[in-house]
Design a protein that fits this description.
Elements (H helix, E strand, L loop, with lengths): L1 E9 L10 E10 L2 E10 L8 H7 L3 H4 L5 H12 L3 E4 L2 H14 L6 H4 L1 E4 H8 L7 H7 L12 H17 L8 H9 L3 E6 L2 E6 L3 H18 L9
Parallel strand pairs: 1-4, 4-5
Antiparallel strand pairs: 1-2, 2-3, 6-7
């Protein structure tokens, strides 16, 4: 399954006040493996940046003056994310801003028309009700190193979120696995003998990757059912 972990930085918090996207960062996963493909783009917002927002991401209007506008790059952005499942923390925020940018570019598309979207904030709230579930809190909870995160940056935050997401949905806290470790995982699968009506059969237990994929599906079912997944009660 192809997934794209996405983050944006903006000129402010309110899309209704015509605030704009100034940075997009994407990291591609395929079958829960980092592929090495990324999409990263700074954007000229053609407007001022709120002081509070600038304190968060450290980007000024002057720094972005020579960057392309979203109109100039929206085609290549859509091509990168098309048909993927987008993994976004607080997805309604980023999707609203991206949809507004697409509307300004006179695009016939909205994000929901080209991608599926998984909101890791909603998922974290279901998994950890009553606790802090921002990205920093999740990094602490899942032992993900974010010590190099002096400022919020879209690509950096997408990389961090990818690691957090993998840990949340299956216990895989590393983004890369070598061919040797993959082979070791296959060899480590236990085959236990069993008997049925005098017949000896082999019981092949699910491997780590299969259990992670199973947990991911259960998490999606939890999200869709409001936490009422029947499987978890069996």
């Amino acid at each position: 399954m192809r997934q794209v972990v996405l983050d944006t930085e903006t000129t402010g918090l309110e899309v209704e006040q015509q605030h704009r996207v100034i940075e997009i960062g994407c990291v591609e996963l395929n079958n829960r493996r980092l592929t090495g493909r990324t999409y990263h783009q700074y954007l000229n917002p053609e407007r001022d940046i709120d002081e509070g927002a600038q304190q968060v991401h450290g980007l000024s209007r002057a720094q972005l003056a020579k960057e392309p506008t979203f109109l100039q790059v929206h085609g290549e952005f859509l091509e990168f994310v098309r048909d993927a499942e987008l993994i976004i923390h607080n997805a309604p925020f980023d999707v609203a801003f991206l949809d507004a940018e697409l509307a300004r570019a006179a695009s016939a598309h909205k994000i929901s028309a080209v991608c599926r979207v998984l909101d890791t904030l909603a998922l974290a709230r279901q998994m950890h009700p009553g606790q802090r579930n921002n990205l920093d809190a999740l990094c602490r909870r899942y032992s993900v190193d974010n010590s190099h995160r002096d400022y919020h940056g879209a690509l950096l935050d997408a990389r961090i979120l990818a690691e957090v997401y993998l840990a949340m949905t299956g216990g895989q806290a590393k983004l890369t696995l070598s061919a040797e470790s993959d082979l070791g995982a296959v060899q480590a699968r236990r085959i236990a003998p069993a008997r049925l009506d005098g017949m000896r059969i082999a019981v092949i237990r699910a491997g780590e990757a299969e259990m992670a994929a199973h947990e991911h599906v259960l998490a999606l079912l939890d999200k869709a059912s409001g936490g009422n997944t029947v499987w978890r009660r069996l």
